[in-house]
What we know:
Elements: E1 11-12, E2 19-20, E3 24-26, H1 37-49, E4 54-56, H2 71-82, E5 91-96, H3 108-122, E6 127-132, H4 141-153, E7 157-163, H5 167-176, E8 183-185, H6 194-197, H7 200-207, E9 210-213, H8 228-244, H9 248-257, E10 264-267, H10 272-277, H11 288-299
Parallel strand pairs: 3-4, 3-10, 4-5, 5-6, 6-7, 7-8, 8-9, 9-10
Antiparallel strand pairs: 1-2
Amino acid sequence: MSLLPLPSAERPLGGSGLNISPIAWGMWRxxxxxxxxxxxxxxxxxxxxAGIKLLDTxxxxxxxxxxGFGDAEALLGEVIAAxxxxxxxxxxxxxxxxxxxxxxxxxxxxxxxxxxxxLRRLKVEVIDLYQVHRPDILAHPAQVARVLDDAVxxxxxxxxxxxxxxxxxxxxxxxxxxxxxVVTQPEISPLRxxxxxxxxxxxxxxxxxTPLAWSPLGGGRLAAPETAxxxxxxxxxxxxxxxxxxxxxxxxxxxxxxxxxxxxxIIGSQNPARIAEGAAALSVQWSREEWYGVLxxxxxxxxx
Length: 304
């Protein structure tokens, strides 16, 4: 059986000049459950010990609808301040441009202030990857590009990415940027294959963007299938999981990583053991038949 190639242990982050691992860790829920800086440090070390080199957060992480805006960044900032040597061990990514309750604001004044606020909370002098979290339809891409380019020029950020942007929005912002985009971050999972079929991954390969996949486990639905389609996808993943001796979770990560765009799943778990488990995905190879079996289950119909 011919197998698809394994991801390399290290890969470039777009054209940023930075290198990352083929899997990342995200901090959407870092500030929940009363976690202390000691708790957060334990999770950061679990990610680093698993070989993860990209840590992804956002200024909105920790917001509960009333308060908590910036809490995840601030908690990570405490971890970095307590152990400055950690900063050189990972690529630091954050996101901004959401301002509750608007919800989105990428005006020059707000976006520039949001970058400065993230730097203060994270207690760092430079952010490796700054991503516009969701597109502000009322902001001209030339205006957004100017703020981001200025932040690169002033040494506040090293590289630029976007999250939840359409192909046209990616192209428009990239057109006006001097420092071109290096990342796109859509929702991708075996249950959410839109980005695989609508041209987003093709655009990423064409522009040299690294795709970061948020919610790669379908918001937990792969662990507890809710519909007939969910169950069919889980069963297709289990074929490989059982044969390779890994969990369905690891099979799901590796399925995304087998795509030629070099998709990097962002592990969302705040459990050290589950973060460590994700590293096993680097050694799982798929055949074309197995890979397309999951895609067919996700589509709910045979390929033409």
